[in-house]
Amino acid sequence: MISDRKLSHILICRDLDVSYKKGTHLDDVELIHCALPELDLEDVDISTKLFGKKLSAPIIISSMTGGHPETKNINERLAKAANRLGIGICVGSQRAALEDPRLKDTFRIVREISKDLLVIANMGAAQLLSPKAREYAEAAISMIDADALAVHLNPLQELVQPGGDVRFKGIIHALSDLVKSLNKPLIVKEIGCGISREVAQEIVRIGASAIDVAGAGGTSWAAVEFYNSKQSGDSLKSEVAETFWNWGIPTAMSLCEVLSLKSNLTVISSGGIQNGLHVAKSIALGADLAGMARPLLIPAFSSEEAIVARLSRIIAELKTTLMLLGCRDLAQLKSVPLVIKGDLLNWVLQRGLEVRGIDRR
Ligand SMILES: Cc1cc2nc3c(=O)[nH]c(=O)nc-3n(C[C@H](O)[C@H](O)[C@H](O)COP(=O)(O)O)c2cc1C
């Protein structure tokens, strides 16, 4: 059942409009053009490191798939493209393969591409409440020899999905236990509703290594479940899901929420990232990397070349932005002047967030 649900989610994401309609608000961040960049394009270095692996660009392919026999070649193409470009890749929830070992190869294919690839395992927060949580986490990591484990928080999806797991009590404690027992870094991520400052505070407190904000602005999981419930004839769930289509903290707001803590956690910007300028704006706000899911799913259905083409454009746009800001590397990008305006400015002021671009003197 979990395996079939995975395929149905992927097909809905490929074929239907499941996007959040109110935007990431990264357009409310303006970077200041530098007409005198004392640099040659070849001097621009966008490489970085995450969990001991070198990345040629601060980009990861966000968690999507594995878990159904028909997803193996999607993961294979994504991993080959990631390996060719020297970026990282996350697999989708490994729950289906933990319950049915015949599905393991749909995930393992990612690690088989290369030992040097940054590969991130994935499981859902709801699974942490099982007495076998630690066993699951270790099995997910060893299945693909992962460099880190991402745990996804998805309360909205569970609430509007037919048969969703609606028990979340005890998750913070379970996450904290997991961090203590795990010998790999733990990333806590949302799946499109963002992370608030208060939730980020808990994540910092339990000792996780990274937060992936996965804010609102891209794939709306309420939208995915709206179609899913409709197809399965559950009109109550589909009506509720439709109401929450545009629920969540937009990506730019979520970044400001999390970054205002000034913790030393790695921060990943994702949710509606479409181009290299979005990546640059995220890093200028203070994020370390950016992630993309659905924009890479469509090319992943066709070929490795199509994924490489999509990502190459993003990398070229990111380098262009650094050049136009006079930045040699990502450290310099993190300290460029910027202006925050519009809804993002209102949000930051009303929430009293201390973020780059807001002078509080
Ligand atoms: C087809 C598809 C499947 C996904 N499956 C998972 C998953 O298994 N685990 C997870 O943590 N996130 C999953 N996600 C969420 C993404 O990792 C990401 O957080 C979210 O889609 C927002 O990014 P986007 O706007 O770039 O799509 C999935 C996304 C898509 C499009």
Would you spell out the secondary-structure blueprint of this structure?
Blueprint: H1 2-15, E1 29-31, E2 48-50, E3 53-55, E4 59-61, H2 72-85, E5 88-90, H3 95-99, H4 105-113, E6 119-124, H5 133-143, E7 148-152, H6 155-160, H7 171-181, E8 186-189, H8 197-206, E9 210-212, H9 221-231, H10 235-243, H11 251-259, E10 266-270, H12 276-285, E11 289-292, H13 294-302, H14 304-325, H15 330-333, E12 338-340, H16 342-351
Parallel strand pairs: 4-5, 4-11, 5-6, 6-7, 7-8, 8-9, 9-10, 10-11
Antiparallel strand pairs: 1-12, 2-3
The structure holds flavin mononucleotide (FMN).
Flavin mononucleotide (FMN) binds at residues 9-10, 13, 62-65, 92-93, 122, 150, 152, 189, 191-192, 214, 218-219, 270-273, 292-295, 297.
Short description:
The protein has 16 helices and 12 strands. It has helices at about 1-15, 70-85, 95-100, 105-115, 135-145, 155-160, 170-180, 195-205, 220-230, 235-245, 250-260, 275-285, 295-300, 305-325, 330-335, 340-350; strands at about 30, 50, 55, 60, 90, 120-125, 150, 185-190, 210, 265-270, 290, 340.
Describe this structure in words.
By secondary structure, the protein is α/β, with parallel strands linked by helices. It has helices at residues 2-15, 72-85, 95-99, 105-113, 133-143, 155-160, 171-181, 197-206, 221-231, 235-243, 251-259, 276-285, 294-302, 304-325, 330-333, 342-351, and strands spanning 29-31, 48-50, 53-55, 59-61, 88-90, 119-124, 148-152, 186-189, 210-212, 266-270, 289-292, 338-340. An eight-stranded parallel beta barrel has the order 4-5-6-7-8-9-10-11, surrounded by five helices. β8, α8 (197-206) and β9 (210-212) form a beta-alpha-beta unit. It starts with a helix and ends in a 10-residue tail after the last helix. The mean pLDDT is 96. The chain binds flavin mononucleotide.
